[in-house]
Amino acid sequence: MENTKKRKLNYPQTFLIGFGFLASSLAWSIYNSQVPLLLSERFLMTNAMIGTIMTIDNFFGVIFQPLVGAWSDNTRTRLGRRMPWIAIGLPVCAILFALIPLQHVLWLFMAVVIGFNLIMSLWRSPVISLMPDVTARPLRSQANGIINLMGGLGSILAFLVGGMLSDVREDKFYAFLFATIVMLFALGVLLLFVREPDSILYKKQKQIPIRDHLANRWAQEALLVRDETESIDTKPAEETKQRSLTAFLGLPRAEQVSLIALLFAIFSWFMGFNAIETFFTLFATNEYGITGGQATIMLTGFSLTFLAFALPAGLIGQRIGRKRTIRIGLVGIVVMFLPILMHPSQWLVQILLLGGGFFWACVNINSLPMVLEFASVKTIGSFTGYYYLFSFTAAIVSPILYGFLQDLAHSYSLLFVYAVICFAIAFVCMLFVRHGDNLELAVTEGRK
After folding, report:
1. Counting Cβ atoms within 10 Å, is residue 33 exposed (0-12), middle (13-18) or buried (19+)?
2. What is the pTM for the complete model shown?
3. What is the pLDDT of residues 187-198, one digit of tens each?
């Protein structure tokens, strides 16, 4: 326990790892804002068709994220387990991304879009798994705050720089080219400054010389803080592969129950979040008679507050426990959103959204580290895949389900009723979570 308390987060390394998430977030932000315009203006597609095409990434995420997570767990190379996927997938994505706005034939446009979405789904889990691979368990909430901060910076760059560049040419090429350059720069940062502990182990096993530079020193330090029970074993590769693919079944029964409850909580709160993200502009324009731009600015306040509190939310989770922080966040979101059901003034809704962004950070930042608390070093990719399986499924189901309910109710005010119910269900699910908290609190609770 003493050693755990003395551990400190490697801030420079965590920020550098965050460049992978920054590149991903920037690309998705430009993709989500510019591709619908191209589909509408260039190919004259209906909103229903555009909406269907824009869910391709979520379908690929549901299918490939868990598989790739498990496959990366069992990858063994001199680059490590995750970096081979990133080193191949990221540059291919960058090139495909630059080609999207240059396609003026529909089938070529769709081929490039589908290729981009497919390859993105092959390196997203590995790039997220880099952080827990090099970070001690108690520090992962804090580290995840930094990772999400970098992702938020990527989104801001996309909206500010990408937004300006999209108007330079009619085909919006420069916005996509900007993302391509940032993605390739991020790859360079990862290759230069990030080494996985498994890369060091592989080189030692194969008697490959290990150069003395900063990235290798950081990787060797990460090896020192691994628990003995999490060290990479020497069991046959086929046995290790089977254990990774069936990681959930390898957990004790009580932990399986906790993980299922946690994953359904994640599914529920992303159901609420995705409905607001998708339909808020329609809600605000119809309920308050404002423009789409003004409605977007209102929702941007929620995102900026989330970004500002990403790191503090991780620190809070590290201090008082992830489970407690998530529960506080869910209660806070419900408290912030309940007054909106009474149709308050526009400025009050803006204030409530700002508060909601803080509580959403408490929930979102601590959720992935809590899922990874169930994983060993050998199964981090698999459990990262579980997280994205449930969150991406919510991203597919929620807009369709809420859209159907809104059509039945013929009222845009249903949005926050739906969201409050989703977050309340998530809170109930969290009451059944008994495992997955920070190591210090888990030990304390085990003694009670």
Report:
1. middle
2. 0.81
3. 999 999 999 998
